[in-house]
UniProtKB/TrEMBL annotation:
It comes from the Bacteria. It comes from Streptomyces beijiangensis. This is SalK.
């Protein structure tokens, strides 16, 4: 049996390799070349394109913690500018470019990268699609041939699988998208507060109203920090999320999970050292 902790550590080691695309200038360049407007449109279209030309409601529901108004400013208009298939092609081009920039051109031929891609792909074999729309959409995409792109694809599939389960856990805990964002920020382990609010498109009054709701529930204190109940609530959400994400790591097995964590951690540390994320995004950085 693979422990929940091992699966969570593996996710933590791999997740930067997926998330770095959202901060890469190469992404905006490729999305713009495909016809999308510069700015936030590329993020929404790039991540949603696997689902097809879906509307703003679907994107807001599956992305969860973004302001529906911000989503509606870009979706579905993005599909009038670039078809989902073109957006997916542009995203993969961007992934190739940014991984080569952050990890070196040798990443395409690195035997350990190929090994990690094979391990991560094996892990995805145990993922079930029921109730996990973003996972299912990405799992239906063909896996790229080059090892570094195959690894990114498999990591993305695993990340969206966990993410869909996380939304179920948040919903069960009675946290809407904005409340989930605020409580995660309050843990000190997520986005910095200003970045979280602005990047997710929430106004100051909306943020303050959600904080008031959380104070009324006893989740936040009057300084915006988690109370004991708040910490218990967030811990419960993470425990449920870990449990719902367990299947791929159990399928892979403890030794293989540790090996994937080792390689993924090395690659993520290199990417972080080479500036994968700008300053001010995460709390404490």
């Amino acid at each position: 049996m693979t422990s929940l902790l091992a699966g969570k550590q593996c996710h933590g080691a791999l997740n930067p390799l997926h998330s770095l695309i959202y901060f890469a200038p190469e992404a905006e360049e490729e999305f713009s070349a495909a016809g999308l407007e510069k700015g936030r449109m590329g993020y929404f279209a790039g991540r949603a394109a696997a689902m097809g030309a879906v509307g703003a409601g679907v994107v807001a529901a599956t992305f969860y913690n973004f302001s529906p108004a911000l989503v509606a400013a870009h979706i579905p208009r993005a599909w009038d500018l670039a078809a989902p298939a073109s957006v997916l092609t542009a995203r993969l081009k961007a992934v190739d470019r940014v991984l080569r920039r952050l990890l070196g051109d040798s990443v395409a031929d690195d035997p350990e990268v190929r090994e990690a891609a094979e391990l991560a792909t094996t892990a995805t074999e145990a993922c079930a699609a029921a109730g996990r729309p973003l996972y299912a959409a990405h799992a239906d995409l063909p896996a790229p041939g080059p090892a570094h792109l195959a690894l990114w694809h498999a990591v993305t599939v695993l990340r969206e699988y966990r993410g869909d389960g996380h939304l179920a856990a948040l919903s069960t805990a009675g946290l809407d998208g904005l409340e989930a964002l605020i409580t995660h920020t309050a843990t000190g382990e997520g986005f910095a507060e200003e970045f979280a609010r602005h990047s997710r498109g929430w106004s100051a009054p909306e943020w303050e109203a959600a904080q008031a709701r959380l104070r009324a529930r006893g989740v936040l204190d009057f300084e915006g920090r988690l109370t004991a109940l708040g910490h218990e609530l967030r811990s419960g959400v993470e425990e449920v999320t870990d449990g719902l994400a367990r299947a791929p790591y159990e399928h892979l097995g403890q030794a293989a999970v540790e090996r994937l964590t080792e390689i993924g951690g090395r690659l993520s540390r290199t990417a972080l050292a080479n500036g994968a994320f700008p300053p001010g995004v995460f709390a404490g950085r």
